[in-house]
Design goal:
By secondary structure, the chain is mainly α. The chain is built from 3 helices and no strands.
Length: 71
């Protein structure tokens, strides 16, 4: 059964029981990915490892600018 077929079946069952319809497939994918990244950064902080994620490219940019400017 494909994800679309499962969604249609879940929507049909929800309407039969008077429940709210489930969100369409893919609706919350980006939010889930952000939450996963946040969780990984949190786990890294708990184990005293460097957290990677938002802003991790700043070190590379600073190093490139330092090379260009000769510092």
């Amino acid at each position: 059964m494909s994800i679309t077929q499962q969604y249609l079946l879940d929507t049909y069952r929800a309407r039969q029981h008077g429940d709210p319809t489930p969100p369409a497939p893919g609706t919350h994918d980006w939010q889930a990915m952000r939450e996963l990244a946040d969780h990984r950064r949190f786990r890294a902080a708990l184990t005293c490892r460097p957290a990677r994620g938002r802003g991790r490219g700043r070190g590379r940019i600073r190093a490139a600018l330092a090379r260009l400017l000769g510092h």
